[in-house]
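Complex 96.
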Amino acid sequence: MAMVDSIPDCESCGACCAYSWEWPAFIGDWDGDGIMEHLKEDGRMRCNGNRCAALMGTLGDSVFCSVYEHRPLVCREFTAGSDACRTVRAHLGLED
Ligand code: SF4
Ligand code: SF4
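Predicted structure with iron/sulfur cluster bound:
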């Protein structure tokens, strides 16, 4: 099986956390309960450029979410190996 068909390792990726500042938004009336205020902004995660402020480490090398236990639903539902995952990885040059 070609490498591109295997499920990527999120801990050495982080692409979906640095794809768009609009992406890590809170859904419904959830206000980011449990997430520190300085990491939130206007109903979503604060971002530096397109990168979520909660993402720690080096993209494409070693990363982790500093609010993992409290991360938004959209983050929880994003699936490694999905078409969307492949798209954002390719956008950041982590996959062909
Ligand atoms: S883009 Fe895919 S592999 Fe990378 S962190 Fe997100 S879900 Fe994981
Ligand atoms: S909250 Fe965590 S999982 Fe969600 S975009 Fe930010 S760093 Fe990624």
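The two ends are 16 Å apart (CA to CA).
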